[in-house]
Design a protein that fits this description.
Elements (H helix, E strand, L loop, with lengths): L12 E5 L7 E3 L8 E8 L6 E3 L2 E3 L6 E3 L2 E3 L2 E10 L3 H14 L5 E5 L5 E7 L4 E4 L4 E10 L4 E3 L3 E6 L2 E8 L5 E8 L2 E6 L8 E5 L2 E10 L4 E6 L2 E2 L4 E5 L4 E4 L3 E2 L4 E2 L9 E12 L4 E6 L2 E2 L1
Antiparallel strand pairs: 1-2, 1-9, 3-8, 4-7, 5-6, 8-12, 9-10, 10-12, 10-13, 11-12, 13-28, 14-27, 15-16, 17-26, 18-22, 18-27, 19-20, 19-21, 19-26, 20-25, 22-23, 23-24
Length: 294
């Protein structure tokens, strides 16, 4: 008999479905019903494959000219054994696994020293085979379109347009100083991982022609500019990985953008500066990101 909460393998993997009402499954531990989810294989977590756009043969020389190389989607295979107290509990566990890896997205979290996660979807047949009335084997094939392994910690920052308000020194015998309030107009974003990560940026109006300047730790500077205006209460969400610009959750404004999509380099920090042609105090820039590993 297993003790709920105890480990039954060298590592734990959590499968958290994004579909409403579907229960998560934790592999490598014993759940509250006394079911031991033994995890014996996690293939594909080490690295995705690579693809090179092309190799062009060198003229009158050895070898080829290599084109750009990219990571493919991350294909993961999870294998193991389910051990239950009785047949009914085993069947319930099998149904739980079927639901967890249905046709919707699932967040797969590997509980390493630094926990990491990816968002995947089932990409093959779920193999479940009964061995006895209390045990069954499983093999789950999922694919993460984004090959990065992300931190489970979501980092966030927010700033208004740069400004200074208040501040006054009265020439009395003992000078009376009224302190000022300064808004820097910048966000410092750190990426502790081994691969560049791409933030999600949200601009809230009122603001005219906002510009996000990214200063990398090494000195490189890029700018992403929006050529239109946002009214009071308008929100523009810029997903720097999906390359989308959505106004108020519905309308695409991609055509008003110019400049490269910001990234935060691996093992480094970047400063995001918020500027605009004009804007008032409620205007803000918010950023959210996760450290990313290859």
């Amino acid at each position: 008999m297993y003790t709920p909460g105890s480990a039954v393998g060298p590592i734990r993997v959590d499968l958290t479905p994004q579909a409403a009402g579907v229960a998560p499954v934790s592999l490598g531990v014993v759940d509250a019903a006394g079911v031991a989810w033994v995890l014996t294989g996690l293939d594909g977590w080490d690295s995705p494959d690579t693809r090179t756009m092309q190799y062009a043969e060198r003229q009158a020389d050895h070898g080829s000219w290599a084109g750009p190389t990219y990571l493919t989607a991350r294909v993961l295979t999870l294998t193991g054994t389910i051990v239950a107290l009785d047949q009914a509990t085993l069947e319930a566990a099998m149904e739980q696994l079927r639901a967890a890896v249905g046709v919707s997205d699932v967040v797969l979290t590997v509980r390493e020293t630094i926990p990491k996660q990816c968002t995947a979807r089932r990409s093959g047949k779920l193999l479940l085979e009964r061995i006895t009335d209390r045990t069954a084997t499983y093999s789950v094939l999922v694919t993460a379109p984004d090959p990065r392994r992300y931190s489970t910690t979501l980092q966030q920052g927010s700033t208004g347009l740069p400004s200074t308000t208040g501040g006054l020194v009265l020439p009395l015998t003992l000078p009376l100083t009224m302190s000022s309030t300064t808004v820097s107009g910048s966000i410092t974003a750190a990426n502790a991982g081994s691969m560049a990560t791409r933030p999600v940026l949200t601009i809230t109006g009122p603001v005219v022609q906002p510009v996000i300047t990214v200063q990398a730790a090494g000195g490189a500077v890029t700018q992403l500019a929006y050529g239109d205006q946002l009214g009071a209460g308008d929100t523009l969400v810029l997903d720097c990985d999906a390359h989308t610009a959505v106004l108020n959750g519905t309308a695409s404004r991609r055509r008003y953008l110019s400049g490269p999509w910001p990234e935060i380099a691996a093992g480094s920090t970047a400063t995001l500066l918020f500027r605009a042609a004009s804007g008032s105090a409620p205007a803000t820039l918010s950023a959210s990101w996760r450290s990313a590993w290859m």
